[in-house]
Amino acid sequence: MSRSNSVPSTPFEAHITDLSHDGRGVARIDGKTVFVSGGLLGEQVLARLRKRHRHFDEADVVEVIVPSPHRVEPRCRHFAHCSGCSLQHLDAESQIAAKQRVLSENFERIGKVSPQLWLPPLTGEPWGYRRKGRLSVRNVMKKGRVLVGFREEQNPRFVAEIQQCEVMHPALGPKVGLLADLLSGMDAVDTIPQIEFAAGDELMALVFRHMQPLSERDLAALTAFGQQHGLAIYLQPGGNSSVHPLWPENPRLAFRIASGDAAVADVELEFQPLDFVQVNADMNQRMMARTLELLDPQPTDRVLDLFCGLGNFTLPIARRVADVVGVEGEHGLVERAAQNAARNGIENARFHVANLFEDQRAADWARQPWDKLLLDPPRAGADKVLEYLPHKQTHRIVYVSCHPASLARDAGILVNQHGFKLKSAGVMDMFPHTAHVESIALFER
Q1: What pTM was computed for the model?
Q2: Which family does it belong to (predicted)?
Q3: CA-CA distance, 100 to 428, in Å (whole number)?
C-alpha cells in the first residue's frame, strides 16, 4: 500500500487477525495496523482505505472473500451506515465471547489481576431493548428532506437517515421515520437539533430540543403526534432544567424492579426524561439479581452505595439491610432518589450529594464504618474514591462497570493496595450488537 498522505481508492486484500475494542476488524498491512469496519476475526476481505493516521489506518470492507463461520445477516436494513450498532453481523455467542475477551485482557494488561472465578455472562432479549437515547436531527437542503437518526458509521459528522430501529424500544423503534415526516412540516425544522427518548414501564417520552420558541402550529403538531402515538411530549428550550411537558400535562415515567423474593416488596422508581437510567430494562433486572447475589446483603449490614443515581441499587438493597447510604454527584438525581425511597416506604436509606471525583474523606458518610460497598461509576471509574475508601471494616465490594479499562485499573488498586481478592467477574450484555462492555466484579478480604 502506498505511504503517501493521499488515501488510495484501490481496494486491497486483508486478513482479519483480531477484533478491536470498538468491534472493528484488525489487520496488518505492510507492518501497519489497519482497523477494518465490517471485518470479523479470521476473515479474508477486500477493503478500501478510508483514513490515514500516523500509527494506524482505517478502512471499510468492500467484499468478504472468506467469511467467518460466525458471520450472520444483519437484521437492520440501516446497519451499513448507522453507528447505533457495530456487531449485528456477528452471531450472539461470538459477541459475548468477544466482550469476555476484552474484559479478561484488560484485567491482565492493566490491573495485573485475574478473577478466581469467571461468572457466566448475563444475556437477555437482543432486540427492542434500548429505552433511552438521543436522536440527531438535520434538515438537509441538498437532499430535500429531514434526517432523524444516529450518527453515520463512516462519518460521525453526518446523521444516518433511518426509518426504523431494531434495537430501540418498540414504542418508538418502528416510528423513527414518522418523526422525520413530523419535523419536515414544522416551522422550526431548522432549529431542532435533537430528540431524546426515554421509556418507563408504561410510557415513552420524547424531548424536543428547540433553539427558538415554537409556533402555535408547531406546538399543535407535536401535541397531535403524541396523542396519536401514545407518546409523552416534552420541550427543552434551554439547559436540562428547562425541560417541561407539553402533552400530557403531568406524564409519569417510572419502572419497577422486581425483588425476586416473595418476602421482599418490589421497588418502583420514578424519573425525569433526561435522568440517567440503565438503557436496558430487562438487563437491569438481571443485573440487580446478580448484584444482590454477590453483595449478599444481611439484615445487620451497613452498606454504602457510591454513584447511586436514582437509587437503582440503593433501594432494593435497603429492603434487605439495616442501613444504606447512597452518594451521587447530581443534585436532581439525589432528590429523586430520596423521593423514591419515601414513595416506596423505605426509611433506612439516606442520600447525599457529593462530587466523587474530588476528595470526600472529610464527609460524614466517608468516615463511617461500612460492611459492604457498591460501586457503579461512569467510564472514568472510581480510582479517586479508592484513595480514601474502603476502610478496614469493609470486607466485600461489588463493582458494576461500564468500562473494562477503568474496572481493571481499579481492580489492581483494590487487590494490590487494599488487600482484596478478585473473587469473581463477568460480562453483562447491556448493549447487544454493540462493542460496549458492561461487567460486574466481586472483591473480598
Answers
A1: 0.94
A2: Belongs to the class I-like SAM-binding methyltransferase superfamily. RNA M5U methyltransferase family. RlmD subfamily.
A3: 9
